[in-house]
Amino acid sequence: MNVRRLIPTTAVAGAVVLGLTALSACSTSDAADRRSGDKLNVVASFYPMQFLAEQIGGNHVSVSTLTKPGVEPHDLELSPREVGGLSDADYILYLKGLQPAVDDAIEQSESKHGVNAAALTTLEDHGAEVGGEEHAHEHEGEEAGADPHIWLDPVKYAQVAKGVGASLAKTDPDHAADYRKNTDALVTKLDALDTAYEKGLKNTATKTFITTHSAFGYLAERYGLTQEGIAGIDPEAEPSPARISALHAIAREKKVTTVFFETLASDKTAKTVARDTGLKTDVLDPLEGITGKSKGDDYIGVMESNLAALQKALGAK
To answer: What's the confidence (pLDDT) of residue 245?
Structure first.
């Protein structure tokens, strides 16, 4: 079982400062050139960043996303036109280490308006939780061993939200009060989600779950669970025969009932493991995009569905 790591507030504050330094060229002087009726042109790398920008920016932003609904974000490729368009953005919100194409595009564009969400909280290494050489995959340019899936932990996501709110207020000071108000409202929702998870997963028959894509390390750590991934951080990684055999043993020992798969990646491996072990299958959505298949209309709705799925699979009492 994972032990929750407490993050000092000083570390979070320092991370926010790190994130804000990326906005040195997108400061008050830029905002002064913008007419009061104009909206900030915000580009988000993928859905969790889009949700933050829309919730915090409200009526003062026009948000577009580089990752269209239904596209697996890890495998995103960008056209020259999309890369070039980054130079025209007033504000770019992305998560370094998740999408190599986006990291490269921002570097190529030499945009000074980018905010890296990973710098607004503390990344951790969850690679050891899935074991095996196939899980050592690291994206080029990613901090060694760093797990980028911070948005699946409501507490870390709230930390990022606070940093985004502060940076938007600096970018567009005319609407700073609204950004602060919207940030507070979103953080309140995320705090309530955290409370629901903490209470809902406190007493369960088992603490272990198996999932295709090892995206839930932060969530597992936050709520005292153990994630056993079939694949590693990369959803397309192929598990070795040794890993499959180990999962069979884990399922028996830990009384696992369910193998989880997701909406944007193949469920073939998960169903094979479930069939071989006599387990059920269900969806645990890593929330990398919202589609018609998503069990919820937005981040909050899907996270509530994920909680219900975990409670059922873990035998919540």
So the answer is: 87
Do 263 and 283 contact (CB within 8 A), yes or no?
yes
∠ CA 114-90-120, nearest 5°, is 30
Strands 146-147 and 124-125: antiparallel
- Residue 91 near residue 171, CB atoms below 8 Å: yes
Q: In this structure, what are the phi and psi dihedrals at residue 278, rounded to the nearest 5 degrees?
A: 70, 25
Q: Give the phi and the psi of residue 73 in degrees, each rounded to 5.
A: -65, -30
Q: Is 102:50 a contact under the CB 8 Å cutoff?
A: no
Burial of 253 (0-12, 13-18, 19+ CB in 10 A): exposed
Pairwise CA distance, residues 291 & 298, whole Å: 10
pTM: 0.83
Higher pLDDT, 52 or 1: 52
Mean pLDDT of 152-174: 97
Return the structure tokens found at 193.
């989600």
Nearest CA-CA partner of 216 in 303, 158, 280, 142 = 303
**What average pLDDT does the segment 218-235 reach?**
86
DSSP-derived pairing of the beta strands 114-116 and 258-261: unpaired
